[in-house]
Specification:
6 helices; alpha+beta; 34% helix; 14% strand; 7 strands; four-stranded antiparallel beta sheet; 235 residues
Length: 235
């Protein structure tokens, strides 16, 4: 069940806002589902151990996970007019089987789930990188639990689809919309739900019950953007 792909098709009548809210919901919930998956946790532990990261080196663990995702998950665009959403487990298995094909949404899902599974807060930073008012790219957000010399306890943006980007660096963005996964959620995993499209909106590969709400989103995105140093250019 967790290995399935959720395919969401957006019709011409779907507004950019409705599409954006739909993507936000699936991103958040798939990160939450993945960080509770023991298969994902075992992979995260394997990654940091193979990288030689010592215990209590929080920044080292984050760097190891980010670099593994950057260098092993393969970027491929989704089909035209269809949004693919994959579980973290499915993304990891595709890497193992040599069939990795993921877009920026999926990169964030798997990285956020891997980090969340070993105790790091994680989420997504949805950005407008073209300064045209359209949110068109997603980056990972995470942070250490103890302060570090480099970042303190601030949230750290991570650009995943470009292996040359170190943590804390980002593409140039003009506006952001941050959200944080809730590891304490008790809802049914998204791949086990019966899902229907938004009223007058997208249709999915499942059907019967209405989609849930967006849940708690992080407020004041402009404040976040300024704190992260993202607005107005590359950090």
């Amino acid at each position: 069940m967790a290995d399935r792909i959720l395919r969401v098709r957006y019709g011409d009548n779907v507004s950019p806002e409705a599409r954006f809210k739909s993507v936000v919901k699936y991103l958040k919930e798939l990160i939450e589902d993945g960080l509770r998956d023991e298969y994902v946790r075992q992979k995260a532990v394997s990654i940091v151990n193979r990288a030689g990261v010592k215990g209590h080196d929080e920044l080292g663990e984050i760097k190891a996970i980010v670099q593994w995702v950057q260098n092993n998950v393969v970027y491929r665009k989704d089909p035209l007019d269809v949004e693919y959403f994959m579980s973290a487990r499915r993304i990891l298995k595709d890497v193992e089987l040599g069939r990795s094909a993921a877009d920026c949404d999926d990169f964030v899902i798997v990285a956020g789930a891997l980090l969340g599974s070993i105790g790091y807060p994680s989420g997504a930073l949805i950005v407008d990188s073209n300064n045209d008012g359209v949110f068109n790219h997603v980056m990972l957000l995470t942070r250490t639990t103890a302060p570090t010399k480099q970042f303190g306890t601030n949230w750290i943006p991570c650009e995943l689809i470009f292996p040359t980007f170190k943590i804390g660096k980002s593409v140039k963005v003009s506006s952001v919309y941050p959200l944080v996964a809730n590891p304490g959620t008790t809802r049914v995993p998204i791949m086990k739900q019966q899902i229907a499209g938004l009223s007058g909106g997208p249709t999915t590969s499942f059907a019967s019950s209405p989609s849930a709400g967006l849940g708690a989103l992080t407020p004041r995105p402009v404040v976040w953007a300024k704190q992260l140093g993202l607005l107005g250019g590359r950090k």
